Amino acid sequence: MSPPLRFISDEAKRFKNRSGEGDTHFNQQRHAGEFGGQCRDFWLNEHTCDGSHAYADLGFGALGECVEFSGCSATTRYCLYSAQSGHQISHYYSAATMGFFRSF
Predict the structure, then answer these.
(1) N or C terminus: which one in the chain shows less Cβ crowding within 10 Å?
(2) Containing H/E element for 69?
(3) H or E segment to which residue 102 belongs
């Protein structure tokens, strides 16, 4: 029997996990954005990036809110939404996502 088909690409996985500073859904966090940071750190390690402080700002939201990391083996972007977004996606999510996929 053949293994089940997998349709989730690395690009799609990058958009799967998202959280923000005002996210009340993940109420077990010790600090705002903890789970988002853990997801970010996983992908930084997975893509052998230069670290969490080596990035370029993407211009979405406040300075440093949405970034692309340097030295990675694959494009790695991260957005920690401001507290205004709560558990919802930020107002720039659609534009940022479409811009990313159009880059291919």
Answers:
(1) N
(2) strand 66-69
(3) helix 93-102
How many domains is the chain partitioned into structurally?
1
Reduced to 3 states (helix: H, G, I; strand: E, B; else coil), residue 30 is coil
| pTM for this predicted structure | 0.65
5 domain residue, yes or no: no
pLDDT in tens, 21-78: 554 554 565 666 677 788 888 899 999 999 989 999 999 888 888 899 999 999 898 8
Alpha-carbon Rg for the chain in angstroms: 14
> Containing domain of residue 46, as a range?
32-102
Residue 25 included in any domain:
no
Under a CB-based contact definition with an 8 Å cutoff, are residues 87 and 25 in contact?
A: yes
> How far is the C-alpha of 93 from the C-alpha of 58, rounded, in Å?
12
Asked if residue 44 is part of any domain, the answer here is yes
Domain contains 88: yes
44 by Cβ neighbours in 10 Å (0-12 / 13-18 / 19+) ranks as: buried
